[in-house]
Amino acid sequence: MKTDILKCIIVDDEPIGRDALARYVAEIDFLSLVGSCKNALEANNMLKEKEVDLVFLDIHMPMMSGLDWLSTLTQSPLVIFTTAHPQYAIESYQFDVVDYLLKPISFQRFLQAANKAQRFFSTPEKSSTEEEQYIFVKTDQQLVKVKVEDIVFIESMQNYILFHTATEKIMTLVPLKQALEMLPDDQFLQVHKSYVVAKEKVEAVEGNQLILGGQKVPVSVRLRKGVIDELMRGKLLRK
Predict the structure, then answer these.
(1) How many CA atoms lie within 13 Å of 51's alpha carbon, on the beta-carbon side?
(2) Domains in the chain, start-ordered, CATH in brackets?
(3) Contact at 8 Å (CB) between 69 and 60?
(4) pLDDT digit string (tens) for 23-74?
(5) Separation between Cα atoms, residue 103 and residue 60, nearest integer Å
(6) Whole-prediction pTM value?
């Protein structure tokens, strides 16, 4: 039976890092620190000895990285990565982590991640077919978790791209090709050298443009036939 208190452990090879996170945990009334570990092997033993709901996990550690350790677990608690290395964000989302915090971590950012964990913990478990899909996008010196279902289209603009959702635009320096590789290929379609769209968000075709989310996205002449065929195949457009 789930309670309102999340029992958490901190896994970090740096004593200063462990102490800083422990102070943050002590300030949040729905978190209870039940252990602190300097490496993945200590954390592995602690999971066998104690009930743990949430792990604040570093990535670069001696003997075994946080990512490697997670890959060995058949069942794991909720995980929030706490690391100084942004380059593992794409790899980390396969583990369905709650958040990815970049050091130095402010208390505001830590609280935001803890609130996400509490919401996730208090929500009834979903079946595997209902689980949320998401990616992490680096922007403004932090990694933002973006739900795949919220993405309407992606626009490439010179050295950066924009993720367009129904409510906001999220800018990142990830190349369009790499962004497309991060997304489920059965849900997204490249329609122009500078545009990728969510297929189910397409509302209509108007000449060489797609209408989706109240906006118009160009379709290249070279790709137009393949785009129309793909949309028709998915019964997203009517003949």
Answers:
(1) 7
(2) 6-131 (3.40.50.2300), 143-233 (2.40.50.1020)
(3) no
(4) 999 999 999 999 999 999 999 999 999 999 999 999 999 989 999 999 999 8
(5) 12
(6) 0.59
Q: Bridge partners of 43?
A: none
| Least confident range of 153-157, 166-170, 179-183, 185-189 | 179-183
pLDDT digits (tens, 9 = 90+) for 135-176: 887 777 677 888 899 999 999 987 789 999 988 888 888 788
Strand 54-57, strand 142-147: pairing: unpaired
* Token pair belonging to 90: 């794409």
What is the 3 state secondary structure string of the chain?
Answer: CCCCCEEEEEECCCHHHHHHHHHHHHCCCCEEEEEEECCHHHHHHHHHHCCCCEEEECCCCCCCCHHHHHHHCCCCCEEEEEECCHHHHHHHHHHCCCEEEECCCCHHHHHHHHHHHHHHHHCCCCCCCCCCCEEEEEECCEEEEEEHHHEEEEEEECCEEEEEECCCEEEECCCHHHHHHHCCCCCEEEEECCEEEEHHHEEEEECCEEEECCEEEECCCCCHHHHHHHHHHCCCCCC
* Encoded tokens for 231: 């949309």
